[in-house]
Amino acid sequence: MRLQNKIAIITGAGSGIGRAIALIFAQEGAKVVVADWTEKGGQETVETVKQASGQAVFIKTDVSQASDIEKMVRVCLENFGRVDILVNNAGILKMGLLHQTSEEDWDAVLSVNLKGVFLASKKVIPEMLKQGQGKIVNVASVAGLVGFEGIGPYCASKGGIIALTREMALEYAKNKINVNCIAPGIIKTAMTKGMLDDSTTRQGLEAQTPYPRLGEPEDIALAALYLASDESDFVTGEILVVDGGFLAK
Ligand SMILES: NC(=O)c1ccc[n+]([C@@H]2O[C@H](COP(=O)([O-])OP(=O)(O)OC[C@H]3O[C@@H](n4cnc5c(N)ncnc54)[C@H](O)[C@@H]3O)[C@@H](O)[C@H]2O)c1
Q1: Binding-site residues, ligand 1, Cβ < 6 A
Q2: 14-39 residues labelled b (16+ CB within 10 A) or e (exposed)
Q3: How many structural domains is the chain composed of?
Q4: Span from the CA of 80 to the centroid of ligand 1 (angstroms)
Q5: Cα 174 to averaged position of ligand 1 atoms, centre (Å)
Q6: What is the pLDDT of residues 34-79, one digit of tens each?
Q7: Do residues 144 and 158 touch, judged by C-beta distance below 8 A?
Q8: Which residues are catalytic?
Q9: Which residues form a coiled coil (predicted)?
Q10: Which of 46, 98, 105, 197 has a Cα at 20 to 30 A from 134?
């Protein structure tokens, strides 16, 4: 098993990519903290992990709130005694042209997608420093590397995650804390359902993806597994694009 006895916190694990990461980590021997702001989704993930004979606990967490993050790490330590892996995956998307974007929507997206990464890393890193090692995997997006129309705050937040990943990697490499980032392409989850239910939009996205299918949450979970495992010990500050060739053109 590639994560035998590791303790992993996964934010946004109540759905989509985060749920797939929780399941594959548990199947590879990790004990998983499912952190999500939705109780229903979080509990469903815990049930799915348990049905696969894995171990998981749900902690209701809004990653944009420092007090929730503090509780998330405290409860993880109370349950499992340490934190080996943090996956900063929680994210939201708001659509609209930039000049029509409200300040509230801008703040909401930046608070969850980018500030959430800062808050969770800030609380987990001291534990990893004490332990002498750790793995942090941030989930960004291809929208942090190239422009996408109509999702300005999202692009800004994901570009920020990529920059922060490199900064954190430099800061903590000497402490054997690896910080890497995954940039998914178009993945079939609740976040993209609206787009993909529209056949014209879906066909357009499929046409832009060289590989002959769109992404599944498991495609990202397998990349996260590599970056969370010992196999990637010499990999840090990396932006791993998982997009079926979307950006290769
Ligand atoms: N689906 C895609 O095509 C795609 C592409 C690139 C990047 N991503 C990124 O992948 C990550 C996961 O997205 P997904 O596609 O699985 O979407 P999703 O909507 O299925 O899952 C997002 C999860 O994050 C949770 N969440 C949202 N705000 C939160 C908060 N403040 N605190 C705690 N939990 C919160 C939601 O409840 C949900 O369970 C996101 O960061 C997203 O930006 C997705």
Answers
A1: 11-12, 14-18, 36-38, 41, 61-64, 89-92, 112, 139, 141, 184, 186-187, 189-192
A2: bbbbbbbbbbbbbbbebbbbbbbbee
A3: 1
A4: 25
A5: 31
A6: 999 999 999 999 999 999 999 999 999 999 999 999 999 999 999 9
A7: yes
A8: 154
A9: none
A10: 46
